[in-house]
Structure formats: C-alpha cells, structure tokens
Write a structure and sequence with these properties.
OB fold (Dihydrolipoamide Acetyltransferase, E2P), alpha+beta, globular, 365 residues, 19% helix, 6-stranded mixed sheet
C-alpha cells in the first residue's frame, strides 16, 4: 500500500491516537440509539437504519480486543467502506483530516497498554508531530464474521421498498426495547448510566438518520464538510477537501486585495491562503483569520481557506436542499441551503467562488 502523502482521518480513543485512510470514510456523525443484534458477533454492538440501509456498528474497544468502555453521548460513529460494504465504528473523539508523509510497519510497537492491540487490524504506525498514530486497516476492520457479512448482503439483495424498510426496522426496534429486562437493548448493554434526557438525544439522532419514505437513492447523497465562518454555517463538498491544517508562518503578498491572506509553505508546496468571508458577506467586517484552515483542490487550484471552526461531516440528499435567498443569488457562490441543527446551512459552490470571486493570485508574485 502506498502511504506517502495520503490524507487520513485522525481520532482519539482510550488515550491513543488512531488514523484511517480518509477516502475509506463515508460519513461521521454523533452516536445515535442502536438496535442490538441478537446472537451477533461480540464486537458488533448493534445496527442502525442509516439513510435507508442497514448498517452494522462495531465498537473499537471490542474490535481491537480491549475491555469495553461504556458508550457516551459524546461518542461518534465513523462509517467506513471496503469493497462496497459499509460498517460503523464507535470511537470517542474525532479530530481532523491530516496528510501523513510516511507510515512505518511496527510489528512489536509498544502501545502503552498492558493488553496489546490485535495487530491484524493495524496497518502501521505514523509520526504525527510529536505523537504516534496507529494506522488501522479498513479491510480487516470491516471484514466481519459470516453472520454480519450475510446480513449486509441479504439487505442489499432484498431491496424492499422504503416503507417496508422503515416498518421492519421500527418493529425490530420495538422488539429490542421490550427485551430490556434481559439486557438486550442498547442502553442495558452498553450505556447503563444514561439519563432520560440523554435517551431523548440518542433517539433524536437515530430519527434524523432515517430517510423519509420518498427519499432518493443513496448514490445521490452529497458528503459535505461543515465549517463555521463568523456566525454562519457553511458546507463544501468533501471530495474537494485535501486536509485540515494549522496556519503557521504566513508570508504576506504585496499589493493584494484584503481577502488574500498570504502564502504558506505546506511541506514544500507554496499555498495561497484566501479569506472567503469578505466575499460571502460584504456587509460585515470580520476579525483576523483564525489559526485553522481547510486545504481545498478545485479545478487544479490548491488553496487554503481560513475558518473559525470545522464542525461536522454530513451526508445530504439533493431533496433536502432548497434554493438560496434572492439576495445571495447574484454571484452564484452557493449551490443551495439546508437545515442544520436548528440553523441554515449554506452549501458553497467553490468552483464558481474561485473562478468568479477573484480569489487566486499568482503564487510566484
């Protein structure tokens, strides 16, 4: 496997730093309520109606052969894909996407634990600044016991209509809830200390992932990175994002418009930082760019966009998107808007923004 200069999703779990190849990640979302699979493999803690598809969910502790820590409201699920199969992975803290220049193979690496991680799931060890990250192998992670693989394949072959899927999953969930006295539901098995208020949040998260009965095919879903700029929420297509970085040692460029922050040396590559906030909202002034940026590649242009916060990775159906307000249509910098956590999310058209917004300067200037 060629691991040079690849992008990796970084996350922490049990005080260790892990990473996964970013192109293997389909989606990331907060842990919702799960439906326990009776007699399933011990590392699979449940299943989920993930936008109309049955998604088995593993817990990283159990998958790596470690003692299970109780699930928390702050946990996340990373959906990974290998050879057309998807599975969810419960982890504690998702960080960001970084480019790693080299990964080494370490057969006897000390993970700082009394119990060793099953090396079948480890593809190597990467140096990330002053830390070491365990590179997980998506192939062995997602290759489940025969029962789970068959469950995935059967769900693909059956292809019932959406109403049947919704009714089946809802019936299955009600069955699991009534089995609580035997420890067969999600809360009894995996988060016994959950409060009633937290249950409501877990259930709301699961409801949000279920598609409406007339939802479109999953191939129409857009994977988006959600960012904060000022007081606004914006999204850009995840396939345009190369990595998330910390901004350091920016060299200013003389005679440039205010939104051109300067140039930055990114591992030997000269990259222009452009602040898009002034272009998106000319009526407001903003503070100086923050120390974080998203590196994007649009139409063979590589640039860094300073952001106030990287908030989320979501999947959005075109049917959930509405037209932008008339006041924002003139330049055509937006593909549309969508609801996001009781707010409006503006989906950026980066190609138009870069071609018509005057964002790029001659890096040799």
């Amino acid at each position: 496997m060629d691991t040079e200069n690849q992008s990796y999703l970084m996350f922490r779990h049990s005080d260790l730093l892990y990473c996964l190849e970013a192109h293997r990640v389909r989606e990331i979302f907060p842990l919702p309520e799960l439906t326990v699979i009776p007699d399933g493999p011990k590392d699979v803690i449940g299943s989920l109606n993930w936008r109309g598809k049955l998604l088995p969910v593993m817990h990283l502790d159990l998958r790596l052969g470690q003692p299970l820590q109780p699930c928390q409201l702050s946990d996340s699920i990373i959906v990974i894909e290998w050879q057309g199969m998807q599975a969810g992975l419960v982890v504690q803290q998702v960080l960001d996407v970084q480019t790693i220049t080299a990964v080494t193979q370490e057969e006897n690496f000390d993970y700082g634990r009394s119990q060793q991680i099953n090396t079948a799931f480890v593809a190597g060890v990467a140096k990330v600044e002053t830390d070491l990250a365990v590179l997980l192998c998506p192939e062995t992670l997602i290759r489940q016991a025969d029962e789970v693989a068959m469950m995935i394949w059967e769900s693909e072959l059956a292809k019932p209509d959406p109403s049947e899927v919704a009714n089946t999953l809802e019936t299955d969930w009600q069955t699991q809830v009534t089995a609580g006295q035997d420890g067969h539901n999600f809360y009894e098995r995996y988060c016994r200390n959950v409060t009633p208020a937290e249950r409501v949040i877990f259930q709301k998260r699961a409801d949000d992932l279920r598609p409406p009965l007339d939802d479109t095919d999953e191939n129409d879903q857009m994977a988006l990175a959600v960012i904060g700029l000022g007081e606004g929420y914006f999204a850009l297509e995840l396939n345009l994002v190369r990595e998330f970085i910390n901004v350091q040692q920016v060299t200013s460029i003389p005679c440039c418009p205010p939104h051109i922050v300067g140039n930055m040396n990114l591992r030997g590559e000269v990259m222009t930082l452009v602040d898009i906030r002034q272009i998106l909202d000319k009526d407001h002034s903003f503070a100086a760019p923050t120390t974080k940026a998203i590196v994007v590649e649009v139409d063979d242009i590589v640039a860094g966009i300073p952001v106030d916060a990287v908030l989320d990775v979501v999947s959005l159906s075109p049917t959930e998107m509405t037209e932008v307000p008339i006041a924002a249509r003139q330049e055509g910098y937006f593909q549309g808007t969508a609801p996001y956590q009781n707010n409006h999310l503006s989906i950026l058209d980066l190609s138009t923004l870069f071609s018509k917004g005057g964002l790029v300067v001659n890096q040799g200037a």
